[in-house]
Write a structure and sequence with these properties.
Chain lengths: 191, 121
C-alpha cells in the first residue's frame, strides 16, 4: 500500500491523528473519520455495485476493517486510497460471491415515467445507457475509470488502490474509454 | 435521438459518474459505531469461548497427566505400609529374640527323665 510519491497534506495529518485515536478505541474519532470519508466511499461503491443498500453495507464493512486494522495502519498512502483499496477488494469478493456482475440499475436513476418532454426523455435514456455501458466493462477497466473520472484520483493512487502497476491502470483506462465509445455509439458520432 | 460529438462523451461520463461522487448517508457514522461495538462483543464472546475450550483442554490434560502420579503415590504408600509391617514384624521378632536370650537354658533330656521318674513309669 505504499505510494512513493505520497506527501501528507493537512487533511492526511488529521486522518493520521484520528486513526491513532481509533486504534485506542475512541468512538468519537471513529465517528469523525466516518463522517469525513463515507460520502465518497459510498459514492464509489454505489457505481461499482449498482445498489445504494449494498454500497452502504460494503462501506460499513470497510470501516469495520479499518477499525480492526487501525493499530497496524502505517500512513504510507492517503487514508482515502486505503479505504478505496479495501472497498475494491470487497467489491471483487462480492462479484465472486454472486458469480456475476452487479446490476446496472442505480437507485438514484430517474424514473422514466417522470418525464414528459422529449429532452428529458433523452437525458434519461442517456443516463440508462451510461449505467448499462459502465456495468458492461470488465471489472478492472470499470474500477479504473470510476476512480479516475468519478473520484478524480491520479494514476499513481489508482495503482496503489488496485495494487497494480501504473502502466496497467493506463491500459485499463484506455480500453475502458474505447469500449464505452463502442457501447454508446448510438448516442455519439463515430470518431 | 440527437447525436453528440465524441468529445462530449468524456464530459457526459464525468457528469454521469460525478453525480454520485459523494453520497452522504444520514446517521451512517452512528451505524458504523454500533456495528463496531457489535463486532467487539462478538470478539469477546469468541475469545471467551476459546478461553473456555482451552481451560477445558488444560484440565483434561492435567487429569490425564496426574493419573500415573496418583498410581505411583498409591504404590509408594503401599510400599510404606509394607515396610511398616516388616518393621513391626522385625520388632516383634527382635523382641522374641530378646526373650529367647533371657530364657534359661534347659536340658530337654533332663525334663523327660524327671517326668518319667515322677510318674514311675
Amino acid at each position: 500500500m505504499a505510494n512513493p510519491n505520497y506527501s501528507p497534506s493537512a487533511e492526511d495529518e488529521e486522518d493520521k491523528r484520528l486513526m491513532a485515536l481509533v486504534a485506542q478505541g475512541d468512538d468519537h474519532a471513529l465517528r469523525l473519520l466516518v463522517d469525513r470519508h463515507h460520502p465518497r466511499l459510498v459514492g464509489y461503491l454505489k457505481v461499482e455495485v449498482g445498489s445504494q443498500t449494498t454500497a452502504e453495507e460494503l462501506a460499513m464493512e470497510v470501516f469495520i476493517r479499518v477499525h480492526r486494522a487501525a493499530s497496524r495502519w502505517r500512513p504510507e498512502a492517503k487514508l482515502s486510497t486505503y479505504l478505496i483499496h479495501i472497498a475494491h477488494n470487497l467489491v471483487l469478493n462480492e462479484w465472486r460471491r454472486k458469480s456475476r456482475k452487479p446490476t446496472s440499475t442505480l437507485d438514484s436513476a430517474p424514473e422514466p415515467g417522470d418525464h414528459s418532454h422529449e429532452s428529458a426523455r433523452q437525458v434519461v435514456e442517456l443516463e440508462e445507457s451510461f449505467d448499462k455501458a459502465v456495468s458492461q466493462l470488465p471489472p478492472e477497466q470499470r474500477t479504473a475509470i470510476i476512480l479516475l473520472v468519478q473520484q478524480d484520483m491520479p494514476y499513481e493512487e489508482i495503482a496503489v488502490a488496485m495494487k497494480a502497476p501504473v502502466s496497467s491502470v493506463k491500459t485499463w483506462i484506455h480500453r475502458a474509454r474505447t469500449r464505452l465509445r463502442e457501447l454508446l455509439k448510438d448516442h455519439y458520432e463515430n470518431q | 435521438m440527437s447525436q453528440h460529438s465524441p468529445s462530449d462523451l468524456e464530459a457526459d461520463l464525468a457528469t454521469h459518474l460525478g453525480r454520485s461522487r459523494s453520497v452522504t448517508v444520514a446517521g451512517f457514522a452512528d451505524r458504523v459505531v454500533l456495528a463496531v461495538h457489535a463486532y467487539r462483543r462478538r470478539q469477546i464472546i469468541r475469545w471467551s469461548s476459546y478461553a473456555s475450550s482451552l481451560a477445558a483442554c488444560l484440565v483434561a490434560t492435567l487429569v490425564y497427566v496426574s493419573g500415573p502420579s496418583e498410581e505411583s503415590l498409591i504404590k509408594q504408600t503401599q510400599s510404606l505400609f509394607r515396610s511398616d509391617e516388616a518393621s513391626q514384624l522385625s520388632a516383634i521378632l527382635g523382641m522374641a529374640d530378646d526373650l529367647a536370650m533371657l530364657t534359661p537354658v534347659v536340658d530337654e533330656n533332663f525334663i523327660v527323665v524327671e517326668a518319667l521318674e515322677k510318674n514311675e513309669i
